[in-house]
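Bump. Still looking for Peptide chain release factor 1 structure tokens.
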Amino acid sequence: MDEMFEKLQSVADRYDEVAEMLSDPEVIADTNRFMDLSKEEGSLRETNEVYKHYKEVIATINDDEEMLREKLDPEMDEMTKEEIKELKAEKEVIEEKLKIMLIPKDPNDDKNIIMEIHGAAGGDEASLFAGDLLNMYTRYAENQGWKTEIIDETMTEVGGYKLVVLMITGNSVYSKLKYESGAHRVQRVPSTESAGRVHTSTATVGVMPEFEDVNIEIEDKDLRTDVFRASGAGGQHINKTSSAVRMTHLPTGIVVSMQDQRSQQQNRAKAMQIMKARVYDFYAQQNESAYAEERKSAVGTGDRSERIRTYNFPQNRVTDHRIGLTLNKLDRIMNGELDDVIDALVIADQTAKLEDLKNNA
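Sorry for the wait, here they are.
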């Protein structure tokens, strides 16, 4: 506990230091430094405020206990004891909150994401389910006040998706959707099934943080870029120019094709954006897999081959296999009401990390 107080005091000291620097005319004149310090001040503010309130609660408990040592009339004695009881209960709640605040933050939590949804096992039904997942995440994003943009798609003849790639931008998108990577299994009667039999199909989801140039570098020697004529709708422009781009990252074999944009330059920019996310995701999953194997995380690695969730339509049930969560409101979840699932995953992850901190203390 003493170690926790030391960390909290260091946060409070740094907050005061940053707040003072933000009032310095030289810092205000330096736009980049002012923005960096403002961001740091914002990230420290809540922890500082909760710790400040915690110290106030402790001080009040000490004052009340000091009063009990004096001769009080029965009514005041009872009131003081009751206040101490309430404050000690509040103290325990704040301590748990502060422990969670001290968990090392994922540096990608504040980032936007690139999400890839693939129709996997199950043919047409898998592609239709991929479309259902796209709709679910799009509606969830709308509920959060985020923006979505489809940046690549390969549709099937039945109206589903072999692949759809979308960008979701907003406040701390990755922190909530990073747990969605993996294989999603659906159990339902396909619209094409005349006998009414329940089929099982899967779609895979990959969630990758969006990276700017300063975050991850891909060397020119590691990248091969080919151009070709785009296919599909678009008129004479698309048919006569090599506007489509195919990028290959040679060390990993990752391939990104982009023909959704009007010009080759725009397709190159989008392809590089997705390539950076995929390359980062490739190496991050390797590191996370090794780490998760060590601590046996309940949430798992997020690998796309790992079955994370089952959507059972006949019973209106969804089950997240990583944390053993079952909810009988699949209809609402498919409509974008994912908060109960995501909140449970966040809590499970925080609990596992708290255990790590205790074990390594």
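Confidence is low (pLDDT under 50) at residues 232-240.

Edit: fixed formatting.
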